[in-house]
Amino acid sequence: MSSSRRSGPPAWLQAGPFTAVFVLFLVLPLLLVVAVSFWRATDYELIPAFTIQNYIDVFNGCGGGGDMCVTFKTYLSTLKFCLLVWAITLVLGFAVAYFLAFHVRSTGMQTLLFVLCTVPFWTSNVIRMISWVPLLGRNGLINDALVATQAIDSPIEWLLFSPFSVVLAFVHLYTMFMIVPIFNSMTRIDKSLIEAARDAGASGWQTVWNVVLPLSRTGIIIGSIFVVTIVMGDFVTIGVMGGQQIASVGKIIQVQTSYLQFPMAAANAVILLATVLMMIWGLTRLVDIRKEL
Amino acid sequence: MERTDPRPFSFYALAIVFGLFVLFLYGPMLTIFVLSFQGPEGGLTFPMRGWSLHWFVRLWEGLGVVDIAAAFRRSVALGTVVMLLTVLLALTAGLAFRKRFAGSGVLFYTSVASLIMPSIVVSLGIGLQFRLLDTGVKTLLEAWAPEGWAAQYGGAMGLYSSALGAHLTWTLPFGLLIMLAVFNRFNPEYEEAAADLGATPWQSFRHVVLPLIAPSLVGVGMFGFTLSWDEIARTSQAIGDLNTLPLELQGLTSTVTTPAIYALGTVTTVVSFIVLGVAYVSMTALRRRTARGRAGQVA
Predict the structure, then answer these.
(1) How near does any CA of chain B get to the CA of A66, in Å?
(2) For residues B226 and B275, is the Cβ–Cβ distance under 8 A?
(3) Residue A84 is part of a domain; what is its CATH number?
(4) pLDDT per residue over A25-79, tens digit each?
(5) Interface of A with B in 146-205 (CB under 8 A)
(6) What is the domain range of residue A213?
(7) Closest chain A CA to residue B239
(8) Number of domains in chain B
(9) Distances (CA, A) of B32 to A14, A51, A67, A128
(10) How many independent structural domains does chain A possess?
C-alpha cells in the first residue's frame, strides 16, 4: 500500500542517470582496459588484435632464478608498503575509535572529537603531504632540533623523500578510513556485553580481545579494504613523498600511460586489479574463518 | 544518571594516544599555514624571516608557466558542477532505491566497487575510452565530412567530459551511501499522511520529503565539492590540456622551491574550510527551520 502511494516516477527512470554515469565512466572504461590489454600498439596508434604479448612483456624475466624481475620487485615493494601501512593504520585506527566509542562519555564530545578526526579528509592530500617538508626536510624542525640538542652530528637524510616519509604520509592520510568504519561498528556494540564480560571477571585486555575486537569485525574489514586498495594502486603519495624515486605498481601504469604505451599499461592495470581483488577476497575470508573457529 | 567511577588507566593512555594523533593530523598543516606568511627573504623551512603576504601575491601572478588563477577558477567551476550533479543523481537514485527495482543490487555493488577501485585503473580506462572515441570521430570526419574538419577536431577529452565523469565515479558512491543511510531512517508515515490529505506524489516529495532530507542533501553536496576540489588520481589520465588546481599543485611540488607552494596550500585549504563552514551553517539553519515548522504546526 505505502509503496504504491509514494510511487511518482518509475524507479528505473529515477536511477537512470546515476546508472548511466557508472556504465559510461566505470564499466565501459574497465571493459576497454581489459580489451586493450590484448591489443598491439605502434608509436602512434592502437591496433585491435588478440595477443598475450603485453602480459609476456610484463613478466619478462620473471621465470628464471637469480635476480627478481622488475614486476615482482615492484609488487613486493608495494606489498611491503601495503602491509606496513595496513598494520599501523589498523592499530592506530582501532585505538582512536576505541577511545571515542568507549571512553568518551558524552555524545556531544564524541561527535566533536569524531569530526576533529575527519575534517582533514576534506582537505587536499597533496597539501597534507608537502606539509611534512618543513618538519622532515634536511633543515626541517626535527633535524634542527636533533642537531641543536647534539643528539646527532649531521642532519638525518632518510626522513624525507624516503620509504619512511611515504609510510608516514599514508598513515597521516588514510588512518581516517580505518577510524570511521571501526568507530561505526563499535558504537553498535551493546554496552551491557562489555559489563557482562567485566562481571564475568575478564580483564580489560581480555574484553577488548574477545568481545570488542570480534564485534568490530565488519568495520575492520571495511577499513582494511579501503586502506589496502588505496595503497596498492597509489602513485601520487609514493611519487610526492618518495621524491619520484620509489617504484610502485600504480606509478608504472601512470608512466606507461603518459608515454602512450596503452596496451602495456592496460595489462598492468588488469594484473593490479586481479591482485587487489584477491586481497579483498582474502581479507573477507580471513575474518570468516576466525568466526568459524 | 552520571557515572562517577574513576577513570581507568587505559583512559589516560588512550587519551594521550588520541591527543598525539590529533597533533599528528593538524601539526603539519599548521606549520605550512604559518610558513606561507614568510617574508620575501624566507625559505621553505623555519625560521620565519619576517611576515608578509609576498608569496600569496607571487602565487596570484602565476608560478612559472602555470596560471594558478585560471586553474583555481577551473577547479571551482568543475567542483560546483560535480556538486550539483552529485546531489541530483544521488537523490534520484536514493529515491529509486526506496522502491525495489530490477538490478538494484548490481547497481549498489557497482557503485561500491567504484569506491574501492584503484583510481589509476579508472583513470586509465576513461583516458583510453576518450582516445578511442577521438580516433573514431576523426576517421568518420575524414571519410564523410568536408575537407579540414578532421584536422580541426580537437578531441573530446576535457574538463566537462572525461574529468567530470572521473570525478562522478568518486563522488556518487559517497552520495548514494549517504542517501541510503538517510532513507533507512526516514519515517514513511509523513508521506502517508500527506497522501491521506490528498497530496500528489510530487507535492508530497516537494513539501514533505525534501524539507526533511534537505540537511543531508547539503552534506552530499559538500562531499561532492570537496572531493572534486582535491581529486588527483582519477583525473590524472582523463583530462585534456587544461589541468585542475590539484593536478597543477602536484606538478609544482617537484619544481617550486619557494613558500609560494605553501601559500597555495593555505589557499586551497581555506577554500575547503569555507565549504565545510557553509555546509555546516546551512545544515543547522535547515534543521532549525524544519523543527520550527513542526512546532508551529503543533501549536
Answers:
(1) 31
(2) yes
(3) 1.10.3720.10
(4) 999 999 999 999 998 887 777 888 888 888 888 887 777 666 778 888 899 999 9
(5) 172, 175, 204
(6) 70-292
(7) A258
(8) 1
(9) 45, 50, 43, 9
(10) 1
